[in-house]
Specification:
Pdz3 Domain, globular, single chain, about 40% helix, alpha+beta, 18 helices, seven-stranded antiparallel β-sheet, 2-enoyl-CoA Hydratase, Chain A, domain 1
């Protein structure tokens, strides 16, 4: 899935915000989450999205532990799987952890029963996450400021949420093994060791690392309380033998336990928690850029109108090659992108290269920016009055913004409509349901099912205020989560045509929980979602009714940074062609 840094992959119900279904509820603070990276937590609350664990259901946890500790060679599988493992290990050897994760996620789809690919993905994720955590100033502040006892309270609170809300039954033995693996991985990462053990004897560090798993053998893992006791035990040993902060040790156990459950569950640091809220609300403190990580630079996909970057002359299609002196060809672009974050009214010094390769340094202020979720509203076929709008994500303002765009096109005598959700990583579940409801007069929109019956919802369309305009929805492999809720509802109902390529296949709901014991959040997979026909979106995606090979997206940069025109977008042109043959005047809702 494409990585958007200023538009995070969200699907959430905010505290106090009710769901479209009368069975909705609020526990402490609740967020319904449909996606991510993106990436990319809320107040002791939780929310639903479709979940998929990449781990084979019957995989023995001790296998993961051995792989995490010893990095044993994978057994020789079939040729395609072997090739995938070889490529992945090459990425790992070059410490390209983000690329390795994406590689293993993709190949795990091709070989869903491969324990070896899953194990390597877990290891890569642990390495990637510890480096990211120790580049996060808010996380480092927590390591410094929290006591070991407070960190153990956070760990206990996280485990309690897993027991109550996680989509699958929790195997406490596995959770402890993954926490142990996270600490072992951290002890070989420079960012962790340099910050916390700068004067430690490397031989002692390695000896301790090798002993962690053995120290825990024989200790009970029957309950979550046993896991807290084991984390406290290792923390005390680490402090005695290495002088390692007990807080840091416990937080590694916590982070490993969370990040290896599935690809979408993750711990949210204080700054990530704040950023999550900002993205849901549709505003954030930043430069006003939408970025995508490339091999050795950050591609600027779009520049938010009236934002600080636009005011400083930065344009879509250009590239960021350094931030505050840190170059994207030296450090991972994802890491450099994190440097763009900072407090309001501070400045970022960025080096920008235009499409001709000419570079310049620009000092850009960080300000609060309103993030549009609807863009490029116009007629792609003025003669046949085929309207178009691109929906970039699903947030609190989406229903309002899309309604405003629809009325604008309607006043210009729109006859048919194309909604583009290509590259849309997701967003609020409630927003996806509301947008689908604007085009469906009745019938089911979405079903969610979790281990906890409180995660089970059936969302249905309502007849009032329905737009009857002929409709096409554009999707691709980057359309995920909330985008798939919307596209799946349109596809299964026969309400419109689906043009493009099969979507990503993330059919899981994540709840966002804010911890009470410290400022951390938990993005937790709580349910799976299904299209109106009962089809699971996970791994399957939404299949287009009119398949068209992916091309560059109109008004977005191509590989050279040049903005693509409508007539160069084959998917868009096919949709317009399909609609032009069966036009009718749209009716008011």
């Amino acid at each position: 899935m494409p990585m958007d840094f200023s538009r995070m992959d969200l699907v959430a119900n905010l505290a106090g915000q009710s769901l479209a279904h009368p069975r909705s509820f609020v526990r402490r603070t609740v967020l319904l989450f449909c996606s991510s990276f993106l990436t990319a937590g809320i107040a002791s609350a939780q929310a639903p999205v479709d979940v998929d664990s990449w781990q084979p259901r019957n995989a023995a946890p001790t296998v993961v532990a051995k792989e995490a500790i010893a990095f044993d060679s994978a057994p020789a599988p079939i040729d395609g799987e072997t090739a995938a493992l070889v490529k992945g290990r090459e990425l790992e050897s070059n410490r390209m952890w983000g690329d390795a994760i994406r590689h293993y996620e993709k190949t795990s789809r091709q070989f869903p029963e491969s324990t070896s690919l899953y194990q390597r993905m877990v290891i890569s994720r642990l390495h990637h996450d510890v480096n990211r955590r120790f580049s996060d100033q808010s996380y480092l502040a927590s390591v410094r400021e929290l006591s070991t006892s407070q960190a153990l309270d956070v760990y206990s609170e996280i485990l309690a949420n897993l027991q109550t809300h996680y989509v699958e039954n929790v195997d406490w033995a596995r959770v402890q093994i993954h926490g142990t693996a996270a600490l072992e991985v951290a002890l070989v990462e420079d960012k962790f060791v340099d910050r916390l053990l700068p004067n430690a004897d490397p031989a002692k560090v390695e000896a301790f690392r090798q002993s962690i798993h053995h120290q825990l053998q024989g200790r009970s893992t029957a309950t979550r309380f046993d896991l807290r006791a084991s984390a406290a035990f290792v923390a005390a040993r680490a402090e005695d033998e290495l002088g390692l902060s007990g807080t840091a040790t416990v937080l590694e156990f916590l982070s490993g336990a969370v990040s290896t459950l599935d690809p979408y569950t993750r711990l949210l640091s204080p700054s990530q928690l704040d950023e999550m809220f900002s993205n849901i609300e549709g505003n954030f403190v930043g430069l006003g850029l939408e970025l995508k990580a490339k091999d050795d630079y950050l591609q600027i996909l779009s520049v938010i109108e009236k934002g600080p970057a636009e005011e400083m002359g930065i344009r879509g299609g250009e590239r960021i090659i350094a931030v505050d002196g840190v170059r994207t060809d030296v450090e991972e672009p994802v890491y450099v992108a994190d440097l763009l974050r900072g407090p309001e009214n501070s400045f970022a010094m960025i080096m920008v290269a235009n499409t001709d390769g000419v570079t310049r340094e620009v000092r850009v202020p960080r300000r609060r920016v309103e993030v549009p979720c609807v863009e490029n509203v116009h007629f792609v076929d003025p003669v046949n009055r085929v309207g178009y709008l691109r929906l970039t994500n699903f947030q609190k303002t989406t229903t309002r913004d899309i309604e405003r765009a629809l009325w604008d096109l309607h006043r210009q005598k729109m006859r048919s409509l194309i909604i583009d959700v290509r590259g849309n990583p997701g967003g609020l579940l409630s927003a996806a349901v509301e947008v689908a409801d604007r085009f469906l007069s009745d019938g089911r929109i979405l079903t969610t099912r979790g281990r906890n019956v409180r995660e089970n919802f059936d969302y249905a369309a309502h007849r009032p205020n329905t737009w009857n305009v002929p409709l096409a929805v554009l999707i691709d492999g980057g359309s995920a989560s909330a985008s798939e809720i919307f596209a799946g509802a349109i596809a299964d109902s026969g309400r419109g045509i689906i043009v493009g390529e099969t979507s990503y296949g993330k059919g899981s709901v994540q709840g966002i929980f804010r911890m009470q014991s410290a400022k951390f959040g938990l993005c937790l997979t709580t349910a799976k979602f299904y299209s109106p026909s009962g089809r699971a979106i996970s791994h399957n995606g939404v299949v287009p009714t009119v398949p068209v090979a992916s091309t560059h997206i109109a008004a977005r940069p191509d590989d050279e940074g040049r903005l693509v025109q409508d007539n160069e977008d084959a998917v868009l042109q096919k949709a317009a062609e399909q609609l032009s043959g069966r036009n009718m005047i749209s009716r008011l809702p």
